[in-house]
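Progress against Task 2.4 (sequence-to-structure conversion) is shown through the following example record, which the project officer requested during the mid-term review.
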Amino acid sequence: MTTENAQQPPVGIYYKVWGLLFVLAGFSYAIGYFGVEAPLRGILLIALALLQAGLIIAVLMHLAWERVIVVYLILVPPVLLVSFLGICIADGSYTHGTRQANFLATPLPAAAPSEQR
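Structure tokens generated for the chain above:
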């Protein structure tokens, strides 16, 4: 059986990717070790995690050598899912904020004691 477009990357690229993954993991640990402040820490950790995931998907899963349609089949659904999740979070935050502003701004009236007969 012959393969038409079989491309095998050189072994050296795997060593470079593994080394880069270890360096990125080291940066992630360094962010926690040196006590980077909260907003910047979250952004940096997410960026490093996305870089690591991209390297793993592209090289170790051989996605860089696949046809474009396979790449779209694998990458588009998670991107859409995260986008829709972000839209839902934004809508929920807006709804929560308007409810807090409109319904909790005025104190609730005191309930009158009920008469028992």
